[in-house]
Amino acid sequence: TVPGDLAGRAVVITAGPTREPIDAVRFIANRSSGRMGFAIAAAAAAAGARVILVAGPTALATPPGVTRIDVETAVEMHAAALHHAADSDLFIAAAAVADYRVAAPADHKVRKADAPPALELVPNPDIVREVAAMADGPFTVGFAAETHDVIDHARDKLTAKDLDMIAANQVGAGLGFEVGENTLEVIWPTGRKTLGPMTKERLGEALLALIGERFHAAR
Length: 219
Ligand code: C5P
What we know:
Blueprint: E1 10-15, E2 20-21, E3 27-28, H1 35-46, E4 50-55, E5 66-70, H2 74-85, E6 90-93, E7 100-102, E8 121-123, H3 127-132, E9 139-146, H4 150-160, E10 165-170, E11 181-188, E12 191-199, H5 200-218
Parallel strand pairs: 1-4, 1-6, 4-5, 6-9, 9-10
Antiparallel strand pairs: 2-3, 7-8, 10-11, 11-12
The structure holds cytidine-5'-monophosphate (C5P).
């Protein structure tokens, strides 16, 4: 096999935002477009991998050869991702998963009242952390979108979540979310590499190649 070759490998990718309902018509979400995760899925399928893409709500078309599972909430994404991660070779968590959900969303539309309502939030499961902790689990890659101290926060996350690799990018005013070009600082326990700046589509290919190299080096 050539270095980085992922032909025939089972790859599970999470992508996009999650939506956490407040009531029957309202939700909490974030600015993730899903473009980075979809680009990685496209690159993985083009490289001959068997790709399952667990996608939050996005406007993007499914890349050729990719099996897509649409989800809305973090809890739904967790169930689908864990189910498929169990027999995968690689898990790439590109989704911007909401850290919290509304404790008790109303099943009707909440009416405007005299006083502003308080929202009680409860933590969502950390999907990539649970996958990284699986016995005989897949090679696990996370993302860290940060507005400051990108490298330090990414290293902390690599260790805290026990990941094999993390791709960090700066977000905020004109960077990261909602834009086409990006730079990634990719970190693993024994090394580091900068990818970009380039389009998210080309970054998807470059990152997948690097993941493939590290995957084979780790096995
Ligand atoms: O802790 P933080 O949300 O910044 O970590 C980001 C990384 O963790 C991303 O890879 C994201 O997909 C993943 N994540 C997850 N489940 C969560 C929160 C984050 O898989 N509930």
